[in-house]
Predict the 3D structure of the following.
Amino acid sequence: MTATFRLSLSLLTLLACAGPALAADITVDQIKEKFDKDGLAVKVGDTVIFSNSDPVKHNLTVVTPDEESKDLGMEAPGTSVKYTPAKAGTYDVRCSIHPKMKMKIKVD
Ligand SMILES: [Cu+2]
């Protein structure tokens, strides 16, 4: 084993151990057919919880920095969905039922 390889392994082990412990859950509420935040800054590994406080359904779609769309599914009143961004960049969140609902998530 070279010293560089050994150092890489140690760093990977450190990152693997530190990652989950530092991850946070951040809640975004959907109320009156709006997000309660226009934007959000999180870190890779954090989980965003979208809760639905409206009496109507929402259907969130997340557009990743690679322009991939991920449908988070129908969200009944009083329920929530979770999303954990996998990489750094800017994500757009939209509701397919209510086009006015838009927010951005910046992931570092
Ligand atoms: Cu909606």
In short: The mean pLDDT is 89. DSSP finds one helix and nine strands in the chain. The chain has one domain: 24-107. The beta strands are 25-31, 34-35, 39-42, 47-52, 58-63, 69-75, 80-83, 89-95, 102-107.
